[in-house]
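Figure S7 source data.
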Amino acid sequence: MTETQNTPQPEHPGRRAAVVTGASSGIGRATALRLAAEGWTVFAVARRAARLRALADEAAGAAGQIVALPADVTSAKEMSWVRDQVAQNGGADTVLCIAGGALGTDPVSEGGLDDWEWMFRVNVQGTLNTVQAFLPMLRETGRGTVLVLTSTAALASYEGGGGYNAAKMAEHGLVGAMRLEEAEHNVRVVEVLPGMVHTEEFTRNRLRGDQAAADNVYAGVEKPLTAEDVADVCTYAVSVPHHVNLDQVVMRPVAQAAQFKLIRT
Ligand SMILES: NC(=O)c1ccc[n+]([C@@H]2O[C@H](COP(=O)([O-])OP(=O)(O)OC[C@H]3O[C@@H](n4cnc5c(N)ncnc54)[C@H](OP(=O)(O)O)[C@@H]3O)[C@@H](O)[C@H]2O)c1
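Tokens for the predicted NAP complex:
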């Protein structure tokens, strides 16, 4: 897809506003830019303030705008501050929880507790803090949307994935319960579950900064998903008429037909 191609037109014309966590890099960054190109006001959240400010500048010529709100999703206090800033700037009816990540590839027998705790804090507690801060605002709009980016790691375990599998499966569990609970408030809950996405930082962070090892993960894989591929799907999912809930969207590169089947040339 390119630019505004194939994105549904708004059902309720007027201001569209979304909070995007994890907006300083990768999928979150691409999604923030894509939404801004479509005319959305985007409240961009991540810890690295300078990157968020550069992102806001990059969107300066877009149909919409990006507002930088640096914060740590693992802090309920900081996410309350984000919510207050959003409320003072016109509010939002859509929240995309994209912040997350993986740390380490150790087998369960050797995995470090610090790594596991980090993954649970950012993927599970971070999403919990984000939705707890914003659900009252979304309910009040009468047509809220929450999109959570989990992973195919939430569907199937793989060797060396124990901590990330466990964290993404926990996040996936949270999303399922929230969909049932929020339906009566007309808040739809979307889960996007990508397979391999070649982003700049995800695997390098997982492998503790080893760029060569990170490059090896993608070596010979024809066309892994890109951040823009996932951004297109997220933008589509939050733009379809509100009664349509794309409950779970699993997306993989053709070269990765399953977690255990990765074709390298
Ligand atoms: N890449 C893949 O293959 C893949 C596949 C499936 C699912 N996913 C999921 O997709 C999401 C994005 O992945 P990506 O590939 O785009 O990774 P990425 O480039 O590493 O992006 C992660 C984002 O999360 C933010 N973040 C991390 N910890 C945070 C915290 N405590 N508070 C606020 N923001 C925080 C980072 O910003 P700061 O460091 O500036 O805070 C960054 O913007 C993650 O949830 C990941 O698990 C990735």
